[in-house]
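#onboarding

Welcome to the new folks! Below is a worked example of what a typical request in this channel looks like: someone posts a single protein sequence, and someone else replies with the predicted structure as tokens. Don't worry about understanding the tokens yet, we'll cover that in week two.

Example request:
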Amino acid sequence: MARAGVSVDESVDCIGIGSGEATDRLLSLAAQEYKAVNVGAQRFQFARTYRPTWAIVLGILLLPVLVGALFFLIKSTETWTVTVEEDHRRVRIRINGHVLPQTLLSVREAMTSGPAPFTATPSAGLVADPVQTPTGVVTPPTSPQQVVSAQQGQQAGFGPPPEGMPLPEGA
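Example response:
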């Protein structure tokens, strides 16, 4: 049986997340039950269509006299809007309209749960991997002595320049 949502007019502070993350969380949660439309900058409207419980009950009771079939054509639409507001201190969402209770609870929980954990793997170090060049594999210098012992006219840690390369006049 379908039931109507609760009437809501409230604001929820988003703890530790930015407006983009708040928008992404909101759209992913509401997409399960509602159709979403962007109606302005950081303003979204959600809508769902359902058959009211009273129409289903009357349709079943009056179906033997064929009048009940008309009750199955009755549908209701409920909408709610969300505005994502951001200032220099926090991000807040304002909810206004009729929302299913479980959707409202999941939105509140998602907005106050904090930032998502960082899942990227850290790099092994600051030294780059060996580079493949036409003359072979060149490894970057690993000690200051290698940097100092670089020959004049070549970069530290790299091999000599390729043979047959014309040098500029006056060098």
